[in-house]
Write a structure and sequence with these properties.
It contains 18 helices and 7 strands. A 3-stranded antiparallel sheet has the order 4-3-7, with helices on one face. The chain has a two-stranded antiparallel ribbon with strand order 1-2. The protein is globular and about 70 Å long. The protein is mostly helical. Helix content is about 65%, strand content about 5%.
Amino acid sequence: MRKKGLRQKWKAKKFELKMGFKDFILNLPEVKGPDRRLTFNEKLKWVLIVLIAFFILSAIPLFGLSENALSRFEFLAIILGAKFGSIMSLGIGPIVTASIILQLLVGSKILNIDLKTREGKRFFQGLQKLLAIFFTIFEACVYVLMKGLEAKPGLEWFLILQLFIGGMLVLYMDEIITKWGFGSGVSLFIVGGVAYELFVRAFTFIGPQGKIQPVGKVWVLFSSFASGNTTEAMSALVAIAATVIIFLLVVYVQSVRIEVPLSFGRIRGFGLRWPLSFLYTSNIPVILAAALLANVQLFATLLQKYLGRATFLGGFDSNGVAVSGLAFWLNGPHVIEAAIRGAFHPIMLLQAFTYILFLILASILFSVFWVQTSGMDARSVAEQIAASGLKIPGFRNDPRIIELILSRYIIPLAVMGGATVGLLAGLADLSGALVRGTGLLLSVMIVYRLYQEISQQHLYEMNPALRKFFGE
């Protein structure tokens, strides 16, 4: 009897702790959402405010910083939406890392969260925010204590505090964009960093010593042709052409879609087509895969600097180029650039193969997990269609039938779309475009998606009846 009583007390205590943790998660500080439907101009205003704030914070240097060993990894900073050496040194890294971990846990059923209910979604979002805060603290400590961002003597914890504040600002700016703007802050910060880097590498005319000289690839192309330097001219031409080709190719693939015919149950003879994009999960899989690669590279260089030697994660030369370990095999070499300059080596082909293979497999994995955790699965979409009064022509009005039809498309689209976006990202990196190919691919996809969302918002404002018709 005593053991039974102790067991019941333990179960009661365990239940109390579980409920207390759940209440804590659901009551984390958050940005309050709007209590009315925002207009297009109001959403655009908040997007511009947050974007300007992001660039201002990126220009504020860390006080007490002695040495910035991460400055040579600016190509990784673009993917992470960061600016190493500034308040924004962490960028979107903690948010994306938290998302990766949580998706893996939920997708593998280690964490059993019912994302079909409103409370389940709230708990998932709260848990993701808690993980993001944890990784903000963790990455800030790692960057400083492992001397990636080396502090002046006695200012280590003050430097960590600044990084933590910057990480929390990014977290809540992302929430502002999600609730008050278009898209997400994660996407916006990536686009902002890529757009800035693209403009600088294409049109800058100020050299390292502050002298006016042709530095941007556009000016290098003209000056090299004029001076007869064919190698530099070809290098600049390939970079510009690769950028344009990637842009056009991504826009084309984004427009490919499958349309499922639907009809209105109450209105005979009238129907529409429900579009399922070929890139069903858009840029989300490659954002997560690219962030995972960036974290591997960053932690590899931090370990090398801290231990004084290379590890299995990778070894780097003085220019920050991976020369061994996992970071070497997961780093996309600029094959075309190397061929033009006569620096091509056969091992580059194997390195390129492993890099593309990893991106494809990781993108497929994250694409499938994202479908299951973000309400894009067949059941959720079927319920949305049925709630709009639509059905599959020739079938009775039953969400289960719609789910059965959609299940033939959604998972295959998630797999094929994830593989395609991973392949495009890998090829973009190998092409030697003006900016890192993955970042360029991400920015094009984000801008295209943002354009679609803005167009829809504008259409609803011009025709308010459409919003009620589609249940928006």
